[in-house]
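ok here's Acetyltransferase (GNAT) domain-containing protein:
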Amino acid sequence: MSVTAHSTLFSPAIESFWQHTFLGGDVLQHSAELSVATQADLDAARRVMLLRRAAGQLQAVCTPALAERLALRQQPVRNEAMLRERLQQADLPLHGADYLFHFSEADKTALMQEITPSSVRQLQAADAELFAAFQGAASEQDLDDAYVELDHWAVFGAFEQERLICAASMYPWDGQQIADMGVLTLPPYRGQGHASRVVRAISRHALTLGYQPQYRCQHDNIASAALARSAGLSLFGSWEVISPDAAD
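and the structure:
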């Protein structure tokens, strides 16, 4: 599937977060096509990460120990293929990539001027029975993939005849002013715009509280990527982290 990035300007908070993540440590090489850096404080689950910006540049970061193991100081990599070959030779496979979507500054302005539809509202603890019925009507796979929970930082839902048919939840991500979201629509109600309206409503709520909405989905999740675009988000890039099966 081809996902086309809009020519957009993202929030300085978003740019700053990813800039610090990938270029905030010891920069080993940097060009318009490829940057490689080390960060001493990466946790084990993210000891190697790649970010392919929608504009084209590939950014890589790893721990200093892995930089030595990959000989990145002694033998700089010329391109992405060389970097991935080094990772493969070192038995450091990457997990399947996630698309990262954010609202552009221009699209946020339009979003904040909207009025939330009457069929969409924020969910509270008092909605536990409705939410339990919603979960009971969804498959285990859908529940695992979406990770929508009533006790998350913010939860919104769409209703049809008082039945909860779509829900999205958010939680602060990586200790930043970024709110990562999940969304799930019950199968009989998909393709009717419910998820798009819920995503926009919960995103508006996050922005009101000073958080930047973030939407992630794996590359092979065509429907989820399409939802992000229909909700007005723009592609920021593709993010990969080291696989849990990678060698220590």
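+1. The longest helix spans residues 194-208.
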